[in-house]
Design goal:
- This protein is mainly alpha-helical and 285 residues long.
- It is built from 10 helices and no strands.
- α2 runs antiparallel to α3 and α3 packs antiparallel against α4.
- The model has no long low-confidence stretch (mean pLDDT 87).
Length: 285
């Protein structure tokens, strides 16, 4: 009887999960999470970015094998096929869970064709190897890039100890304050907000050097500073249209472009690492 109750409980749980998915089918996107073992082959755990270089090597080796098979160059074909085998098998060594995803039969068929110099028999097993790569990419490439290659701003703080997210909110308020004061024809207040905006942007720019290893901090850029100067000039006697144009240009240069590069990837990364996905899903039903 106990086993019967246990079985019925399992069926009930499955039914609940299916029902939740069905109720949210118009808003639900299901993504597979890559194995945790993959993290050790990406920064910051792995400084050499071994996984990425393995993928780059495989792409190059597949191209070389196809090229030298077309040329009928047995020596170079053999050299590159050996490199291909080494890096293809390394996938299963680095992430044992993906060992079963490898098409070892295709790899063996490829090496047999290479050894026999059957150049016209190379493409078929090579295509199968490519398909095995593509199937894994379809399931995991986007998520992996977001988890291990998207920026992580969760611990970024400014020189005064304030978290960067709070600084971002202040910058947004200052941009809006400029617009409000401009529309209401209060140029002195608008200029005061521009001054505070410039100081905040300079402070935020110091954090960019943590990733952008350059002699000159990339933010605010010369183009942004030029637009800020034009904005100040327009607030000192320019028309409302001129003020709006310069403020709009500044919003694109100083906000939208960085958000397009960094914020979207970071927000998606946060969603994938959020441990409360199902409670949030139920809450927002």
């Amino acid at each position: 009887m106990r086993w019967r109750h246990f079985f019925l409980l399992q069926l009930l749980l499955i039914a609940v999960v299916v029902a939740i998915g069905y109720l949210h089918q118009d808003r639900l996107i299901i993504l597979k999470k890559p194995p945790e073992e993959l993290a050790q082959w990406y920064k910051p755990d792995n400084k050499r970015q071994v996984w990425l270089h393995t993928m780059f090597n495989l792409r190059r080796e597949m191209q070389a094998v196809a090229d030298y098979a077309d040329r009928g160059d047995a020596t170079l074909l053999s050299d590159w096929s050996q490199k291909l085998e080494q890096h293809y098998l390394k996938i299963g060594e680095m992430v044992p869970q993906w060992q079963k995803k490898l098409d070892l039969a295709a790899l063996e068929a490829l090496q047999q064709a290479v050894a026999a110099q059957q150049f016209n028999q190379i493409n078929e097993p090579l295509d199968r190897l490519q398909q095995s790569c593509n199937s894994c990419h379809d399931d995991f490439r986007v998520q992996t890039a977001l988890l291990y290659r998207a920026p992580d701003f969760s611990d970024v703080t400014l020189t005064d100890g304030q978290h960067s997210s709070k600084q971002m909110q202040q910058l947004i308020r200052q941009v809006n304050a400029i617009k409000i004061a401009s529309v209401d024809q209060r140029p002195d207040e608008a200029l005061a907000s521009v001054k505070q905006l410039k100081l905040g942007m300079e402070q935020l720019g110091e954090t960019c050097l943590d990733c952008h290893k350059t002699d000159r901090k990339p933010y605010p850029s010369p183009a942004i500073n030029e637009t800020l100067a034009k904005l100040e000039q327009s607030l000192n006697g320019g028309t409302l249209k001129e003020q709006g144009r310069q403020l709009g240009t500044l919003a694109v240069q100083a906000c939208a472009r960085c958000h397009g590069i960094h914020r979207q990837g970071f927000d998606m990364r946060e969603m994938l690492t959020d441990a409360n996905d199902w409670p949030i899903l139920l809450k927002h039903r």
